[in-house]
């Protein structure tokens, strides 16, 4: 568990599965995230397999005070490189939570893994996410054309990275 102020990032517990299931809706995912229908049972089976915590992939719960406000996704897909993703409840956005979570998770990765590069991508229209990444020191490296499919069409994304 890592914590700063009222923000706490921790591994997923069985009681979090309902929150994860609810976050996986088109409304909660917002205008810039992919959405796929997923059964609650499939989510339970994935949790039972490894608790969403393996050497390749981790899903972490973000709490603000006493309630879950979002999820962090970590992918360790190549030697020395990690990719992060963040989904916050819409009512938790625009309050500085994204920057706190980003600060905590980047420090955690660099301090605990042999990682030299952390990547993040965001829809080209997601100005808020871009500003958070840039304020934290991530550099925009380029455009990933037709990278994500959501809301019925393919969308371009910007690739960002920060180097240790």
Automatic annotation (TrEMBL):
N-acetyltransferase domain location: 7-160
Keyword line: Transferase
InterPro entries: Acyl_CoA_acyltransferase (IPR016181), GNAT_dom (IPR000182)
GO MF term (any one): acyltransferase activity, transferring groups other than amino-acyl groups
Keyword Transmembrane helix (UniProt): no
Pfam families with a match to the protein in the record: Acetyltransf_3
Protein name: GNAT family N-acetyltransferase
Taxonomy of the source species: Bacteria, Bacillati, Bacillota, Clostridia, Eubacteriales
């Amino acid at each position: 568990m890592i914590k700063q102020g009222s923000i706490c990032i921790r591994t997923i517990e069985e009681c979090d599965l309902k929150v994860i299931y609810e976050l996986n809706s088109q409304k909660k995912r917002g205008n810039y995230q992919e959405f796929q229908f997923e059964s609650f049972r499939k989510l339970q089976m994935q949790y039972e397999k490894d608790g969403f915590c393996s050497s390749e992939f981790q899903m972490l719960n973000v709490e603000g005070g006493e309630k879950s406000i979002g999820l962090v996704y970590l992918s360790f897909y190549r030697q020395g490189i990690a990719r992060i993703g963040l989904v916050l409840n819409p009512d938790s956005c625009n309050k500085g939570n994204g920057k706190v979570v980003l600060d905590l998770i980047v420090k955690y990765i660099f301090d605990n893994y042999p990682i030299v590069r952390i990547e993040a991508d965001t829809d080209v229209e997601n100005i808020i996410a871009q500003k958070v990444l840039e304020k934290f020191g991530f550099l925009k490296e380029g455009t990933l054309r037709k990278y994500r499919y959501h809301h019925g069409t393919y969308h371009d994304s910007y690739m960002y990275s920060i180097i240790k």
